[in-house]
């Protein structure tokens, strides 16, 4: 398998990614990481971490964050381990750990896999959110990373609710058509949902949702101002999107968790 070493946050960290197969991280991972905001030591679990881009983006911006990269695919988990061994990541690697596990495991199987109850301040996730009928691919690794299975959000969010501390924050990125399933999966586990709708350009329909929620909260759902990735012309990021993509700012909740 051919691999590339790709720079993020303008070279502050690098990620080993497969070329031509599997999922390659980009703007989605950086936007997901921007949802985590904390002062002081904080524990973050990155579900479906792939090669570790989103989790390392959190560690790159928050100098006291400890990050657990949780990935089911042995191929992608191996990429994450190679990522941590890069000399460019020597400053981040001591605060980042790779756990090869299925986040949909339940009960004793989940605990045995290393996903313990009530231990993390944040869980971030970029679940496979393409409908299986949207696109087919002979690349099994890519299909696993991109194609949604029935009940996917329920399974991932259930586990997030188990491993988060009371008052901990769930953050995820998804397609707009998944909003009903996300809200249903949060159920009584999470409240205070804050949703940012992401548009490629001001005149274009939304392509992503950024969602945060707090374990045990009873606060009401809030739609935040939209995020536009690009202006009306050209391919340059807007100043806001560029700052988020390069780890210079974060999306701070209106009703922030205690941490």
TrEMBL record:
Highest rank taxon of the organism: Bacteria
Keyword Acetylation: no
UniProt keyword annotation of Transferase present: yes
Molecular function as annotated in GO: methyltransferase activity
Limits of the Methyltransferase small domain: 23-177
One BP term from GO: methylation
Pfam families referenced in this protein's UniProt entry, alphabetically: MTS
Record's protein name: Methyltransferase small domain-containing protein
Source organism of the structure: Pseudorhizobium banfieldiae
